[in-house]
Amino acid sequence: MGIFDKVFGGVGGNDPFGPQEGFAGILLAASACDGHIADEEVQSLFTMLGRMKMFQRFSDKHWQALMNRLVGVRKRKGVDDLLDESTSACPTELSETVFANACDIVLADGVVEDDEKEFIQKLQSKLSIADNKAHTIAQVMVIKNKG
């Protein structure tokens, strides 16, 4: 263990994600799955999270800490590890909700790249969403984002 591990190791970096981190982490991973985060995707991410009950009591300090942790995991470990940690922490009853929001973020910039399609398929699998349900959710999000 290095000197910085000893000094900073206990500052929540290794703590498991909670429900809010799990949900937000999935959406951040959706934003970053194609290698870059478009402005439209970031705006969608914050709009979605800001409307949810589970984030209503978040102060600016909470938001900053949450996003710093999630972005740090993405930078250090990559999108796949962020997705793994996030899906295991996201409440099961919100699986379809987070899947719909992830589809919405992927569609926010008007282009769905191969990396984004692959991400949505991985997410569907990790959240155990049935094919017919995932198809319906994706169809609705495409309709929502037309025009």
What does this structure look like?
- It is a single chain.
- The protein is mostly helical and 147 residues long.
- The chain is 69% helix and 0% strand.
- The longest helix has 18 residues, at 60-77.
- The protein is globular.
* Helical stretch tally: 8
Q: So what's the overall shape?
A: globular
Oligomer description: single chain
Residues in helices, as a percent range: 55-70%
Largest sheet: none
Helices and strands, in order, run as HHHHHHHH
* Strand content range: under 5%
Integer tally of domains: 1
* Rounded mean pLDDT score: 89
Indicate the radius of gyration in whole angstroms: 15 Å
What would you say the CATH architecture is?
Orthogonal Bundle
At CATH level 3, the topology is TerB-like
Low-confidence stretches: none
The CATH class: Mainly Alpha
**Content-based structural category:** mainly alpha
Q: What key attributes describe this structure?
A:
single chain; 147 residues; TerB-like; 8 helices
How do the helices and strands line up, and which of them pair or pack?
Elements: H1 3-8, H2 19-32, H3 39-51, H4 60-77, H5 79-89, H6 95-107, H7 114-126, H8 131-144
Overview in brief:
The chain is mostly helical and 147 residues long. The chain has helices at 3-8, 19-32, 39-51, 60-77, 79-89, 95-107, 114-126, 131-144.
